[in-house]
Amino acid sequence: MKHTCRYLQQNTELQRAKQIAHHQPDRIIATSIDQDPFVRKLSFAATSRITKEIAQDLSEFKCGLAHLFLQHTSASLTINENYDSDVREDTETFLNKIVPEGRSAPWKHTIEGPDDMPAHIKSSLFGCTLTVPITNGQLNMGTWQGIWLCEHRDNATPRKVVVTLNGI
């Protein structure tokens, strides 16, 4: 770690970036993306939708972070493989196995139906936030990585993702 830090301090490109950052204030842009209800069985591969919605704002950043926040407690955000849809189906199968649903499940909180409490648990397992690096105006993710918006309810409702971009 110390060797890496020493290397970074000697790196002239990093020094130049620090000079630019010193003279250029951080930018912060916030927007929200509304997603219509979608079928629960397949989590929505949201990468292309999100990048399309924020493309113009994203292009203004050389370096920074994109923070995504889902304003719901029965859906979630995660990053996972984005190529093979079997991964999404297998993930749904696994979640249903570890968090059972139905009238025989042990949950007390069933105000909105038998999938209500399981949806909250599944949402807690994945979470409602993501932070993705921005490099040269694009989300800097791996080749096979994609953003999933996971719906955990049978009767889905519209979902809202707040995106905050921060950087230079």
From TrEMBL:
InterPro entries (alphabetical): UPF0047_YjbQ-like, YjbQ-like_sf
Pfam families given in the database record:
YjbQ
Q: Which SUPFAM superfamilies match?
A: YjbQ-like
Superkingdom of the organism of origin: Eukaryota
Q: What is this protein called?
A: UPF0047 protein C4A8.02c
Q: Could you tell me which species this protein originates from?
A: Morella rubra (Chinese bayberry)
